[in-house]
Design goal:
With 261 residues, the chain is mostly helical. The chain has one domain. Helix content is 75%, strand content 0%. Helix 3 crosses helix 8 and helix 6 packs across helix 8. It is globular, with a radius of gyration of 18 Å.
Length: 261
């Protein structure tokens, strides 16, 4: 697919904002996926290209946390493998669904993720006793990995919430290990989608540059303002982009609603 310079610049701008928001509150995919689809990119290609650009930011975060000694690679090697395998199956499933079905499903998923980000409670800062064991951790992470391979937005928040609420980790530790697990699922989905020929490489790499820059700025802002103000903004922007997708009469959800009236 070919895009004009204005479209590429706009998508790079969205990737920059998404990278910044990811560092502050998570959920940058809530912006990049609908923006890619609004530019006329088919759903599977949009998700694949988003995986390419988001993997760079996640990898840089893993390196930063690892250098600070925040990641227990030995404890999380099997959960990371579970996230990888689950994500491969998620991406495999994604590529076998009807594109028309995906065009209708994705706006619904985006709305659900926006509501989740709006209502999700703040996580605890303190380490606590784990409620579940290693097997449960492996199964839960694998299931979230499947979701990441299939769609993606909200994966980091789901992982962090699970690690805090079910496995007793403090927010900083949960965030560090979430990045490791998210990197495993991102890379797995990306590889599966590369094999399927779904990645738009030039666009994805340009967006990756913007995403990494936004993430670096967001990391510094996070120490000052945190995600309290950013999260409502993320929800509003996501819903506006979703409304843009649903404004197309050819969208299956829109067409279904119009037939009812």
């Amino acid at each position: 697919m070919e895009f004009g310079g204005d479209v590429i610049a706009l998508l790079m701008g969205v990737a920059f904002v998404a990278g910044l928001i990811d560092a502050l509150a998570g959920g940058g995919g809530l912006l990049t996926i609908p923006a890619l689809m609004a530019a006329g990119i088919p759903p599977v290609n949009a998700i694949a290209t988003n995986k390419l650009q988001s993997s760079f930011g996640t990898a840089s975060a893993v390196v930063a946390f690892a250098r600070a000694g925040r990641i227990d690679f030995r404890r999380f090697r099997w959960p990371a493998l579970g996230a990888f395998v689950g994500s491969v199956f998620g991406a495999w499933t994604l590529q076998r669904l009807d594109p028309a079905f995906l065009s209708g499903l994705i706006p619904v998923l985006l709305i659900l993720m926006a509501v989740y980000f709006l209502l999700a409670p703040r996580a605890s800062e303190e380490d606590r006793h784990s409620r579940l064991g290693t097997t449960a951790l492996l199964l839960i992470v694998s299931a979230i990995g499947f979701y990441d391979g299939f769609f993606g937005p909200g994966t980091g928040s789901f992982l962090a919430t699970a690690l805090v609420a079910l496995f007793g980790m403090g927010l900083v530790s949960a965030t560090a290990h979430t990045k490791l697990l998210n990197l495993a699922s991102n890379v797995a989905a990306l590889l599966a989608l590369i094999v399927g020929g779904k990645v738009l490489w030039t666009l994805g790499l340009l967006m990756a540059l913007s995403s990494v820059l936004g993430g670096q700025i967001g990391a510094h802002l996070a120490m000052r303002v945190g995600g309290k103000v950013i999260r409502p903004l993320l929800v509003v922007m996501s819903l506006l982009l979703t409304a843009k997708l649903l404004s197309d009469p050819a969208n299956p959800v829109t067409a279904f609603v119009l037939r009812m009236f």
